[in-house]
Design a protein that fits this description.
CATH architecture of the largest domain in chain A: 2-Layer Sandwich
Strand content of chain A: 25-35%
Helix content of chain A: 25-40%
Structural class of chain A: alpha+beta
Oligomer: homodimer
Number of strands of chain A: 26
CATH class of the largest domain in chain A: Alpha Beta
CATH superfamily of the largest domain in chain A: Bira Bifunctional Protein, Domain 2
Number of domains of chain A: 3
Number of helices of chain A: 14
Shape of chain A: globular
Distance between the termini of chain A: 30 Å
């Protein structure tokens, strides 16, 4: 493991896709497992996901939600109860058919015991609407039982044919909120509230600008009446859907017969939402900020915010430097900064610099014998590769405001890039040219699935969203493809 | 849901098992799902599990461990690589055989697509030694890569035939630590360290006394050279294994070819441990403390530590009381106490008292119009059902030390009960008599699996552990069953 340096990193400009895969593995974030399409999330990658989990969980609780846990398995018949839902997920289901292995009668290891066939096959959950609404049936009787505001942190499985670490894996980790409401208005408001929570998380913690919008009917979640999403732009100009929030209407309540008695004692079907973000956010984070030297992490999500590297020749120097480092570490920890001292004795400082650069640690602090005398440190920023000398006496306070500054600047940089690459396109020729360069194409569209499909066939671009914020789109115009009248622009892009 | 009161609780003395099931459901902790043997962990139950998770996670990190995530699925061939391991788990495996559903050609919903059969079946992990050691093979090359100290929070599936909420479910949540070491001594020390972490958690947070000990060879984890466990005594005198820590020797390193180069450059197999606790702890918690009025929670694990119930007739009274309650709530929260004001307007105070009793909230604070005048509150303790009047001015400080006191007393009460029910038994007649009454039977045993098996057949009692702490057991004697010589006593009990 120790031989990895960023010199071996693929160049981002040469092959963005290879650069990404390379970075994920070399920065110790994740790796392929022995199981097709399933990844191992390594400790460093998992530590970032844990931070995301922790922050999001608090945001959910602050907005009135509670956590619960529902079964991993879904009876096959449940999936079929909502017609669009099964259509959307049937083709990528992992199916459990047996509950026992036995010794092979021919003596070659273990085989499935044919006598242990399940009466009804179980699906490993691709999403939990069906099992949850089957449960809510018993929880909801009257308007007093509403709203139900549950979230679940769980693993789900979708048998994707082409997988990529974090971006598209057969198994992934996520949270799925499932709420039940007395009225349509309340459910719509909930779906909107949660897409806004996601946007806030993306912007403030991931330093990642996003556009909030509606999905087109074609791109909606299977079983939803409306899907809101946050769409981010990666550095190669491609779009990445980073979170979705669905207004499900009464579809699942009807499929699972969930009715409640309103204040007048009349029965009505319950209104639903669901919303989720997943370990895909890790991919979005990586592709928003990283460079040819490796990962660049926003301070708010960095498991290690400051790494300290000693430079020394003699043993006395070493012990004096480490002892000073421990004092400074304690001062920084006091103000809430997470610090690691890299005291490995078998590696040169240059190697350590490269490794922590690769891992995206926002600030590096170096102390050598001369710094010890002068009372300074050498401080380097990961995001813009600057170096400066900072007095030890004021280091903790300095780093604290620097981390805020880095967080802010990383967002601004990404926002500038994003906004420069949102392009108004009004003719089909322009569209075909521009889509090759990447970016979000802000175009008029005639609102039909046919046009959407044709544009996709010809250019691989899809409607990422019908924006609600981030750009002024309400204006009359003509569909970029069909020339038919349109009331607003939408965002087309190629997407992850 | 609102009609539930503890009057409907089964009496603990009449039918302990029914009392338990009843309590789990009525206190809103968990319920059966539509999937055989899988439970739904309801928000209130999950909130307790979250507290356990949070505290344990911190204890693991404080002892140098990091979290990671490994695949849900295990290739069937991996399970077979360690002979005892597959023997132990093959009979309870959920097996994924297909990866797609299709519309039934006969038009009756969806069916498994026969063309989507997997080349190799996948097992839903019953535990992750095999997939993890297959991964460690790539992580470990030299002594510098050791130790590897990973933990994973995950769901696992063991297809148990007879299930009970929390105690034995087909799917359960747990953590599994998997560590790799250069030497046998280090691995043994790790296994011991972690069983001690579990014991500390049980004692200090769950207020549950435990005996630490070795498992007998028969009761060991499939693939381990030594298994340490913590054994708790439930209120009916039965034992519950609450956590295990395994010294795995080099078994998995050999099965998956994991070798490291030591300082001399020589290759050697890596030494392993694994250790885990699960949502079973919820069952242990419930059965250690609860009574005929419902759950009794130790303050350290109570999602709500104080519930405040207003008593009023007029609207002005109500608003004055609630406003005072909000002030007191803020004062208590300031010192780290979690407080809920139950301001539901459609329920009588008596109903609320019963409900919060059922849910085990440690302290109830009631304020009526007279309390408002006198500047006092009525405070009730859940654990021993006492009531007292406390000055509002000192409420926060009073409750803070009271919660500590309750935590301590709950442990002492459970310890007293446990110690009174650890009985030295020296004859077979006594054994057969005593085992019917329950408790831990401290007996000499000749050390053979045959005797162990016969005792189990005749009395359903098993060796819970060969104690390391909690009782003086090193003494010469004669096996309670065979009369053969023995060097120490062990604990026999019937167990969950």
């Amino acid at each position: 493991m120790a031989e990895v340096t960023n010199k071996e990193m693929t160049n981002r400009e040469e092959d963005y896709s290879k650069w990404y895969n390379n970075l994920v593995v070399k920065a110790d974030l994740a790796e392929q497992s022995a199981v097709r399409g399933c990844m191992v999330i390594k400790p460093y990658g998992y530590a970032i996901w844990e931070k995301m989990h922790e922050i999001l969980d608090k945001m959910f609780k602050d907005t009135g939600h509670v956590n619960a846990y529902f079964p991993l398995f879904i009876p096959k018949s449940f999936l079929s109860k909502e017609a669009e839902h099964v259509e959307g997920f049937a083709k990528e289901c992992a199916v459990v058919t047996h509950h026992r292995l036995m010794n092979d009668p021919n003596g070659s290891g273990v085989v499935v015991d044919p006598s242990a066939r399940l009466e009804e096959e179980l699906i490993v959950r691709p999403t939990s609407e069906t099992i949850i609404w089957n449960t809510y049936k018993n929880w909801i009787k009257s308007w007093r039982d509403l709203p139900v505001l549950c979230n679940q942190w769980a693993n789900v499985v979708r048998w994707e044919m082409r997988t990529r670490l974090f971006l598209r894996t057969a198994e992934f980790l996520w949270q799925e909120g499932h709420t039940a409401h007395a009225t349509r208005e309340e459910a719509v408001a909930e779906a909107q509230k949660m897409v806004n929570v996601y946007a806030k998380f993306a912007r403030e913690y991931m330093a990642m600008p996003v556009v909030i919008g509606h999905k087109s009917e074609t791109e909606r979640f299977a079983g939803a009446l409306d899907t809101y999403s946050i769409e981010a732009m990666m550095q190669d100009g491609k779009a990445l859907q980073a979170g979705t929030s669905h207004f499900l209407g009464q579809n699942f309540a009807k499929a699972f017969e969930v009715q409640y008695a309103n204040k007048e004692g009349k029965l009505d079907y319950v209104w639903a939402t669901s919303w989720g973000v997943s370990t895909r956010l890790m991919g979005a984070l990586i592709m928003s900020h990283s460079d040819n030297n490796g990962l660049v992490l926003p301070p708010a999500l960095a498991p290690i915010q400051v790494v300290m590297v000693p430079i020394y020749k003699k043993d006395e120097e070493h012990s004096a430097i480490i002892s000073r480092m421990n004092e400074l570490k304690a001062e920084m920890e006091q103000v809430g900064i997470s610090v690691k001292i890299d005291d490995r004795d078998n590696l040169r400082p240059g190697f350590k610099f490269a490794e922590w650069e690769l891992k995206g640690v926002p600030v590096r602090v170096v102390i050598g014998p001369r710094d010890l005398e002068s009372g300074n440190v050498e401080l380097a920023r990961r995001d813009i590769s600057t170096k400066e000398s900072v007095a030890q006496a004021s280091l903790a306070q300095y780093v604290k405001s620097l981390l805020d500054e880095i967080q802010k600047q990383m967002y601004e940089k990404a926002l500038k890039f994003r906004d420069e690459n949102i392009i108004k396109v009004d003719t089909w020729d322009e569209f075909k040219q521009q889509i090759e360069k990447g970016g979000f194409l802000l175009c008029h569209w005639d609102g039909t699935a046919e046009t959407e499909e044709k544009i996709k066939e010809e250019t691989k671009a899809t409607i990422r969203c019908i924006p609600i914020d981030s750009c002024v789109c309400e204006e009359e115009g003509k569909c970029v493809y069909s020339g038919k009248p349109s009331q607003r622009r939408v965002i087309f892009a190629r997407a992850y």
